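Worked Example 4.2. Read the sequence first, then its structure tokens.
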Amino acid sequence: MKSWLRRIRGAVLMGLTWALVWAPVGVLIGTIVDPDGSMDEMWVLVGAYPGFLCGLAFSIVLGFAERRRSLDELSLRRTGAWGAAGGLLVGLLPFAVGTASTALPLWQWGVLIVGTFTLLSAGSAVASLWLARMAKKREVRNASAGV
């Protein structure tokens, strides 16, 4: 039971971390889409919500695919692939839930949303791997200093 709680806590923390990193991307999108500030959008949330969902999806996909291994033990390529898979799942979610009400064709929205989420998620997964490896090195260094 404790291992499940630890996994859930880790997935939520991964989602929150990605949400913090993706929030400035939402602000950047807001400055491009709405340069004069006439829309009443909270652009921080435009980046934070997908970031949280992609981080959560990455953790779930990683938990099922790599049960016995921790994040710092994975290769860069595998981590990027699992991150892209999580981004792909979240990117397809709006198309599974409803229909687009825009002037752009559906395939262009699909490329824009799914492609962006997939690339950002793969990059965030690789960055998470890098941070996990740095933490592992620091842990080993601190443990060897006490010997």
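Now turn to a second chain, presented in exactly the same format:
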Amino acid sequence: MKSEVKMSGTRLQITRVFEAPRAMVFAYWTQVEKLQQWAGCKDATKVEIQADLRPGGSFTQKMQIAGQGEYTFSGTYEEIIDLRRIVYTAIMGSAAIRVTIEFFDEGEGTKVVVTQEGFPDPKLGHIVSLGMNESFEKLDELLAVVQNN
């Protein structure tokens, strides 16, 4: 399934159904070694993530992007509810973006709804939506391989 993307003002929402159980999908968002396998746009040649996954904990994601150099963003986790929700604030340049990721059972799969609020302009929201969709494509492929092994 492709992602459903909605951009409205400073708010971006991306919804996608992954063909994997919620516990597995949640693990790929909350275990650094798994997250590094799929996070980042398709041109990311290397992704390094450091994270203290707890409310009040911080994270840094550093990506090497082919032809563009290094891009780093960081943030702080506000809420983590096992198998249900992750909330954090990400600092992207001078913008503080509040991100809420929700996980729902959808048949035998998992619906993930990512809501990001606080974009200073639609251009940044559009760039982020492209990168997230490319990441989600990689996650789809990874989950299919894991389930077939």
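Notes for the reader: The mean pLDDT is 93. DSSP finds three helices and eight strands in the chain.
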